[in-house]
Write a structure and sequence with these properties.
136 residues; alpha/beta; five-stranded parallel β-sheet; two-stranded antiparallel ribbon; 3 helices; 24% strand
Amino acid sequence: MSETIKKFLYVNRKAPYGTIYAQESLEVVLIGAAFDQDVSLAFLDDGVFQLTKGQDTKEIGLKNFSATYRALGDYEVTKLYVEKESLEERGLTLDDLQNIEYEDEDDDYAEKSSIRLISRAEMAEVMADQDVVLSF
């Protein structure tokens, strides 16, 4: 009997620090990916701040986990959907985000961006296409 792989979308709506949601989401994503789930992430509202460059947590005394996003490709997590309107509403652009890439084994291991900038309407379509949506 063949087992169907379900698609899991982890929705990140919170800023990276101040609550445990962002770090917990990342940990759950890594666990799911280790068990061969089809995992993708969505970043909207203040969740877009999780992917920004140059995060410095020294003053708040918390561990900076932002570099972990760059390791997601090693776990075959290659779809990070970022809502364009959420970026714009916060005065951010794609250039403000970390460079998160993966090696595409189907394209001679070419490095490709994992970040997919999409509109709110497209985000709704992505969510509707999932088997499981978990919001953090």
